[in-house]
Design a protein that fits this description.
With 306 residues, the chain is α/β, with parallel strands linked by helices. The chain contains ten helices and twelve strands. The chain has a single domain, classed as TIM Barrel (Alpha-Beta Barrel). Helix 1 packs across helix 2, helix 2 packs parallel to helix 3 and helix 3 crosses helix 4. Bound molecules: ligand PBG.
């Protein structure tokens, strides 16, 4: 009766890596229990997720071809576009969110268009707008831009509205830090930047007020949900965003955070299940309304649904 925070399966969003090919179910070595799945493997996956009571998934694409402008990101027949259709057919009630960012689709691994070794903000917006529209057209319920270019939320909103998707909400990765915790994800997607790093567009871990500025701008540009990423080293940011703004707050419990728990548990140094539940509960206590996490299926089982 006096518990202040409750973790529920309704709070969870499960990330899925979609790859090209057929019958692919390839475990990501640094993320035990998580797989790269080809489109034909998604129907069963989606039904399992629904049976566990998890309300939503977020899709990341691993395309067959990468180029300088990430053109496979806007292919109507691309991995994510096809994945959306497959999942919505197999499990229409499952909310499909898509990550909108070109780093998985560019050969240089950056989240933007590159010229003379610099990542260009404004030309990137054009591709992001097209990518969001192509996801909405394929049936995505919500788009989640994760690139951290300035002005992207406003531009994507304008493009979605213009193309008839005014009801498609935007979950903005608003305060996304240039973090070492993304390591396993970049291995999973083969998306590590081939030169430099992402610090010209992602945030400095030293900054908190800047995060409030970024969130404020995204809200002004009509974001529907704002996200803080990563979660664990940024609990103070989750708490501040929750206190200062009224929009729903999402927190991304990222790949490195997941892998640390798995690695330590494997060595017998911690009780993995207990630490997982403690982490997820604490992210909620900090102020998150929803949590993107690779633990989602395990946590859902533990929470007793399905
Ligand atoms: C960018 C993106 C990244 C993650 C989610 N979206 C990688 C990055 O910024 O390098 C990382 C998520 C994770 O580590 O779990 N498309």
């Amino acid at each position: 009766m006096v518990r202040e925070t409750k973790l529920s399966v309704d709070d969870l969003i499960y990330p899925i890596f979609v790859t090209f090919g057929e019958s692919v179910r390839d475990e990501i070595s640094s993320m035990p229990g998580n797989f790269r799945l080809s489109v034909d493997m998604l129907a069963d996956e989606a039904r399992e997720i629904v049976s566990l009571g998890i309300p939503a998934v977020i899709l990341f694409g691993i395309p067959e071809t990468k180029d300088a402008t990430g053109s496979s990101a806007i292919d109507p027949d691309g991995v994510v576009q096809n994945a959306i259709k497959e999942i919505k057919t197999a499990a229409p009630e499952l909310i499909v969110i898509t990550d909108v960012c070109i780093d998985e689709y560019t050969d240089h691994g950056h989240c933007g268009i590159v010229e003379d070794g610099r990542v260009l903000n404004d030309p990137t917006l054009e591709v992001l707008g097209e990518m969001a529209v192509s996801h909405a057209r394929a049936g995505a319920d919500m788009v989640a831009p994760s690139d951290m270019m300035d002005g992207r939320i406003g531009h994507i909103r304008k493009m979605l509205d213009r193309e008839g998707f005014s009801d498609t909400p935007i979950m903005a990765y608003s305060a996304k830090y240039a973090s070492g915790f993304y390591g396993p994800f970049r291995e999973a997607c083969d998306s590590a930047p081939q030169f430099g790093d992402r610090s010209t567009y992602q945030m400095d871990p030293a900054n908190s007020r800047e995060a409030m500025r970024e969130v404020f701008l995204d809200i002004q540009e009509n974001a529907d949900i704002v996200m803080v990423k990563p979660a664990l080293a940024y609990m103070d940011i989750i708490c501040r965003v929750k206190d200062e703004f009224s929009l729903p707050v999402a927190a991304y419990n990222v790949s490195g955070e997941f892998s640390m728990v798995k690695a330590a548990a494997e060595k017998g140094w911690i009780d993995g299940e207990r630490v997982m539940m403690e982490i997820l509960l604490s992210i909620k206590r900090a102020g998150a309304d929803m949590i993107l996490t690779y633990h989602a299926k395990e946590a859902a089982r533990k929470l007793g649904k399905g």
